[in-house]
């Protein structure tokens, strides 16, 4: 009897252990299933598994060349009203993410974090803040948007500024300021908040102390950064963590004050780059070894005002950047923003040289490049320049060539640059920020921060997210993933400046049938060299492109009206992963031994093109592509 009971107990234990293992396996499978985004196709999971830098370009898990496009989320992190978070709630984060994907065409977000709220007490990380950050960040990942977090600072810290100040800052916590015994802040005669960077003694001294680790303040920041990265790695699911593109260690670095005889280039070499190496080590320790650091040079290295420009660009880091770092910079047209140094509107090719400099510096460093902030004020005296300035910047991200020469020199177009526009703030015009804690200075207008107003989005009276800029400008056709190497890309968005349609890249008269097909519509052209990858090439399709009325002309096929994707379909349309309703054009080559080049034109111009017109346009386009090869 005793032996029988023993056998029964052993059998029961086996059953329980087996049941437990089955439950764990089931939970694991359920977790894996939960990671799969709505709308994902057979290749999407593998593509999303990695984002790496390879041969100077971003590549996904299938080896396709990837372009990151999106927005900064958001300047609300600089404010106190939501306690250093971009959003008041997870629901608002979800609303914002869905709108960013659906209305703004984004596949990437630069997600701002606050050191002040992550470490409000020295040596003690606030896990409630990190938990809220994780849930809000997750909303973007679940919408199919890659994210790279950014420890943001401007003017070092809001705690440097007194309650009656004209300006404010963000970044370092109060304890880091209190230990510095800094003078009462004053910018003197400052017309723009950015002048505080070099003119406000409290800001310059505190910034200097950070870089020189006075009182161990930089060590504390690096420890907190590691804790934040560890928390995200532990609390996101494996599939969600795959959507983290990397980390931006420090926004817009500047020395504060140079040592006697020290140049900006020497400061980058001796102070900034060693900091990035330390941050890179913290990433590795926190489980982020396979993700790049998005490192920024001296913020003035590519200023377009000669008296602001400072030598830099991490020149002395040389090839040390490589695949573990991304060359990450900002660009604002200070001439246009000043209202003095640039009269009139931006024109075709306005920023080709500025953005070519970014491409060249990234290439020389052996890594990918990204312009993680760019934009222009949408209110105030120079707001009328915004349509042309933003069109010019997007044009320069797409190609290093002006529209006037693109068709004749497309093979010199250069890599398509990644970029995230400043900014995406659904609370624009609806803030309730006590500036520097002053109850008598409640900011509601614009971005509620130093009189800025740059958000591409706002909420309407019904609470729905709506664009504040021309949708034709923001929701763009772009090659989000290319099965091979991009040789040239252009997009004529036909965006508007008031009632005027801006056309900077007309189809040349030497291609009359292509011109007839496009008419006055929008169009994009992608020229690429295949590398045998079996997965499709993807182009984001703007929401205003009706697939039933979209025309694609390519060596892979020519058709008006796009069929739904099935494996092997040469030209098709499919949802983008995330369930937001955004769409993509998928171009699939059937053989690895095909032409040396592929080309595709996507347009919403023709309403009902004839078969003859499609054939003639295809012949013109493929001949043009062969001539470029």
Automatic annotation (TrEMBL):
GO biological process assignments: polysaccharide catabolic process
Which branch of life, at top level?
Bacteria
Q: Which UniProt keywords apply?
A: Glycosidase, Hydrolase, Signal
Q: Which GO terms describe its molecular function?
A: beta-glucosidase activity
Gene3D superfamilies from the entry?
Glycosidases
Signal peptide per UniProt: 1-27
Please list the residue ranges annotated as the Glycoside hydrolase family domain. Answer: 93-409
Q: Which SUPFAM superfamilies does this chain map to?
A: (Trans)glycosidases
InterPro entries for the chain: GH, Glyco_hydro_5, Glycosphingolipid_Hydrolases
**Similarity annotation:** Belongs to the glycosyl hydrolase 5 (cellulase A) family.
Name of the protein in question = Endoglycosylceramidase
Species of the source: Streptomyces pristinaespiralis (strain ATCC 25486 / DSM 40338 / CBS 914.69 / JCM 4507 / KCC S-0507 / NBRC 13074 / NRRL 2958 / 5647)
